[in-house]
Design brief:
mainly beta; globular
């Protein structure tokens, strides 16, 4: 049984930082590409960042230079370090693991106050 669980969301003032975690079980974590997505109220779910099994990373233009994605295969966990947060970063953040199959977590709320 595959489980994907995000954590680390919360309320932070603009300019602050948060680190999100994505813990997975029931899969060979190291072989999966990890993607962080976010969805603001009334908007579509957008890709924020990815990290491949070879540790190659990509970022959306809106977060490039402020967010850092990483992974620790020994802990079956991926992270999203978010710095210099802006009110427009407010959203539910989701983790997705992709290989032959794809698995979503339940999401974690991030709220950035101005």
């Amino acid at each position: 049984q595959v489980q994907v669980v995000e954590s680390g969301g919360g309320v932070v003032q603009a300019g602050g930082s948060l680190r999100l975690s994505c813990a997975a079980s029931g899969i060979t974590f190291s072989s999966y590409t990890i993607g962080w997505y976010r969805q603001a109220p009334g908007k579509q779910r957008d890709l924020v960042a990815t990290i491949s099994s070879e540790f190659r990373t990509t970022y959306a233009d809106s977060v490039n230079g402020r967010f850092t994605i990483s992974r620790d295969n020994a802990k079956n966990t991926a992270y999203l370090q978010m710095n210099s947060l802006k009110p427009e970063d407010t959203a539910v953040y989701y983790c997705r693991l992709t290989n032959v199959n794809g698995y979503w977590g339940q999401g974690t709320q991030v709220t950035v106050s101005s």
